[in-house]
Amino acid sequence: MQSKPKVRFRGSEAANGLLMISPTAIYAILLLAAPLAMIFAYSFMTDGYLKIIPHFQLCNYIGECHSYKDVNGVMTESQTYKGVWSDPLALTLMWRSLLISMVVTAVTVLLAFPVAYYVSFYVAPSKKSLWLFLITIPFWTSYLIRVFLWKVILGTGGPINFGLLELGLIQEPITWLLYNVNSVVITLAHAYAPFAILPIFVSLEKIDRSFLEAGRDLGESPFMTFWRVTLPLAMPGVISSVLIVFIPTIGDYVTPSLVGGPEGKMVANLVELNYKKLDNYPLGSALAVSSMALVMAVSLLFLFLNRRFLRGNKR
Amino acid sequence: MTSEKSTAADQTMIEFKDVHKYYGDYHALRGITATIKAGEFFSLLGPSGCGKTTLLRTIAGFEGISSGVVMIDGKDMANVPANVRPTNMVFQSYAIFPHLTVEQNVGFGLRKDPRSAAEKAKAVAEALEMVGLKGYGARAAHALSGGQRQRVALARALILKPKVLLLDEPLSALDKKMREQMQMELIKLQRQVGITFILVTHDQEEALVMSDRIAVMFEGEIAQLADPETLYRRPNSRKVADFIGTMNFLPADILSEVDGKVEVEAKGFGRLTLDAEQVSVAPGSSSASIGFRPETLTILFDGQTATDRESKAEVVEVVYYGDMTYYDIKLEGTTEPMRLSMRNVFGRPVLDIGTQTRVAWSPGALVLFR
Q1: Strands, sheet with B12-23, edge to edge from the N-terminal-most edge strand
Q2: pTM here?
Q3: What does the CA dihedral B187, B189, B195, B197 come to, rounded to 10 degrees?
Q4: Partner-chain residue, chosen from B62, B87, B97, that has the shortest CB–CB distance to A211
Q5: What is the interface pTM, i.e. ipTM, of the complex?
Q6: Does the CB of A217 have a partner CB in chain B at under 8 Å?
Q7: Which domain holds residue A50?
Q8: Quick check: B156 contacting A, CB < 8 Å?
């Protein structure tokens, strides 16, 4: 015989709810939380070249660390390396990644806003879905191919240089377009444009048009109405766009390795180097955790500065 | 009417001259010509789609016109954008900015006001007090009820001292009690500030209660423009009569017409003569009918006699409303039931269906539509 509370739980709303979310929850735990926890744990361990020694240490983050190597069954010190926050190279790359993703975010969101505004305010309602569909077309090609295409477009023999040469505007191909920070920014801004457009579009769509008429009615010009009414009401969308672009770009790996050149490398490239070529999982993990912490800190600061736009605006 | 009002009433505040508005092929306003006086409480009344909101929006400047002239206080409003017109609007949805507090909403239009911040804050507080929201200034807009939003919208518009206040179905979102309360408050407020109020509504009762004058609109045209009493007692067409309150119609035959006086015969009423002012002529109409309001016929109880005329009738339906009883009666010789309303008096019975009775009426309360 079953006890009463058990019977109640099995049929209860809470049980149904848990049952419903359990596939997603299991998936999230296995594929997200567990790997994250592993990386976090690795970042405090000791590098044993082809294996990881479960010896706790903080030097992967700060100070100097020793790598160990198996020499005839005995773990011997092989080399020393600097922890993430003590290593000038890692700091440079993190700083550069932060800067690049900030610039990418600014460029993307600033370019996305007019597009979203146009679609929301000037496109006939019946044509809006067509426009949104067209905006997502770049997604039909793989990200890798799009990056390669930018490589062609920006290259010395690409259409930009060809056109400028033909027009006689330049005497020799310009080289500052490719294999540096510029090309990374251009490529990433293009790749993330739809992600930035959609949230802004949604928040603009939600604005009751009578708010804009009220702004005009109360004596404000179209521009001031935009500034005092439309923009503040669209801010939740802008904030989402900023985070959606900023968070993944800081860890982007494909774009900097293909079009970044030596001066366009980002922190993810260093993580890759440590994981694959150097086989130093603890340092790679510490780098990953550090850049994650950086993203989180910047995002939280950003949210804090914009908190007044995120209060419940229920009508 | 107060004395200030009658002095101001001579001035014209708004003038429409043959205003047309097309949306593509759709002819939304079909030659509106009307004058709204300064200090007047004016209503645009009509069913949805009649163009009343469009007309209001041409005053505010949200809607351009295809041809004609809209003048406010003697100035042609062509090419005058909404933000510089001397009008303010209370929107149907109230349009209270959700990202601002109550006082920020009310003070929204004061940005260019040269007064000091302290003086503006005082003006905001006064405006809030005027609409009965004293002490609500710091509240978030989304924490307000429908009635409170309405008041904020009023304060936000009135603080700018517009020449004309436009109200776009402001009471339609409120429940009945609240609506009746706000009607009285709006009337008081309008008398207090003396600003011209223009109200758009589809609720005939609301228009009758609140307005000095009403323009009844159908299909982009003004069907009748008159004060509430004239509109109710002497509607100029069956359509207006039908839209405002209840009106019964009895087919009638015109016998003769002398000096505007019309002699008619109608089953149930017999022969009677009507004055010229009781006759509404609709162009293209072939049949004539007599119209009368439910309260213009009175049931005669035992021993009562009519002061003017009386007819025999049969009760076919009874609807009891507490203070009133509605009877459907058939006048002798007619087949269509007519609606009649009687105020209930203590000690007087409510008649049963099938009762044979007599009704008293007076030819002066009838209208002839031909």
Answers
A1: B26-37, B12-23, B67-72, B75-76
A2: 0.81
A3: -40
A4: B97
A5: 0.84
A6: yes
A7: 4-85
A8: yes
> Which pLDDT value is given to residue A172?
84
Residue A93: which of A262, A233, A234, A221 has the closest Cα? A262
Closest CA to A223 of A239, A238, A212, A237: A212
* Residue A41 sits in the same domain as residue A123: no
- Give yes or no for a contact between B73 and B86, defined as CB atoms under 8 angstroms apart: yes
**A45 pLDDT higher than 50:** yes
CA dihedral A234, A307, A28, A293 (to 10 degrees): 120
What's the CA angle centered on B111, arms B110 and B114, to 5 degrees? 80
Question: How far away is chain B from the Cα of A244, in angstroms, using its nearest Cα?
Answer: 23
Last residue of a domain, one of A53, A69, A85: A85
Is residue A313 less than 8 Å (CB to CB) from chain B? yes
Picking from B84, B99, B148 by the largest number of A CB atoms within 10 A of its own CB, the best residue to mutate is B99
Contact B62 A220 (CB under 8 A): no
Superfamily for domain range B1-86+162-244: P-loop containing nucleotide triphosphate hydrolases (3.40.50.300)
pLDDT digits (tens, 9 = 90+) for B325-364: 999 999 998 989 999 999 998 888 889 999 999 999 998 8
If one looks up domain B294-360 in CATH, what number appears?
2.40.50.140
Give the containing element (helix H, strand E) for B311: strand B309-320
pLDDT at B258 over 50: yes
C-alpha to C-alpha distances, B76 to A24, B70, B73, B154, nearest whole angstrom: 65, 6, 9, 26
B32 bridge partner residues: B19
Tally of structural domains, chain A: 2
Residues A256, A248 contacting (CB under 8 angstroms): no
Which of A216, A218, A225, A231 is best to mutate for the B interface (most B CBs within 10 A)?
A218
Q: What is the CA radius of gyration of chain B?
A: 25
